[in-house]
Amino acid sequence: MLLWLSAALLLISTVHGQVVNVTIFTESQCPYCTRLLREQIWPFYVTRPGIMNLQIIPFGKGTCDYDYNRNFHCKCMHGPTECDLNRLQNCAISYFPLRHFGLVTCVQGLATLREAFSRCLSRLSVRSQRRLVECATTQTGELLNYYSMVNTHRTGVRVWPTVYVNGVYFDRSYPMATKICQETYWC
């Protein structure tokens, strides 16, 4: 009996002690997305590092097509600047898979790509800055936008931001921190 109880407690603590998978579908110029990332997710991420396995998919409502030269052209809900900023966010995610969230949050909600370059890239090495600028202004970034569009459309997202916690849709009717902490003992 004692052995069974020990095994059950170990299983429960393993399940609830795990890292919480959080997937957020965003648009770079959506005010609700900006509020979620800056006011809820970023502070939680900074104060409780290691609790979330965070996946951000910046694209939103929009489409991407390619022309006869196989160049992608994306159109975003809030206009061309949003596509520019989405590209920069997708490039950051691609180039810094484990350390992109600060940069993605910095870019979120800004007015122009130029503003994002000056405000958000200045702390990076010159080499990293060049790579991100090149990515965000070329077909490399547009291809990354296309991949985000495919992920967004496959999931059937219709409202932004859309959040999944451990693969289950979260309606955001209460704070994200509460939901994340319900999924782990690490809070």
Provide structural commentary:
- With 187 residues, the protein is of the alpha+beta class.
- The protein has one domain (20-182): 3-Layer(aba) Sandwich (Glutaredoxin).
- It has eight helices and six strands.
- The strands form two sheets. It has a four-stranded mixed sheet.
- A hairpin with a 2-residue loop joins strand 5 (162-165) and strand 6.
- The longest helix is centred in the N-terminal third of the chain and has 17 residues, at 31-47.
- Mean pLDDT is 92; it is low at 2-15.
- Residues 1-17 form the signal peptide.
- Keywords: Glycoprotein, Signal.
Summarize the topology.
Elements: H1 2-16, E1 20-26, H2 31-47, E2 52-58, E3 62-66, E4 72-76, H3 80-95, H4 101-107, H5 113-120, H6 126-136, H7 139-155, E5 162-165, E6 168-170, H8 176-182
Parallel strand pairs: 1-2
Antiparallel strand pairs: 1-5, 3-4, 5-6
Q: Determine the CATH topology.
A: Glutaredoxin
Give the total of domains. 1
Number of strand segments: 6
Q: Identify the overall geometry.
A: globular
Low-confidence stretches: 2-15
Strand-residue fraction?
15-25%
Protein name: Gamma interferon inducible lysosomal thiol reductase
Family: Belongs to the GILT family.
GO molecular function, one term: oxidoreductase activity, acting on a sulfur group of donors, disulfide as acceptor
Organism: Angiostrongylus costaricensis (Nematode worm)
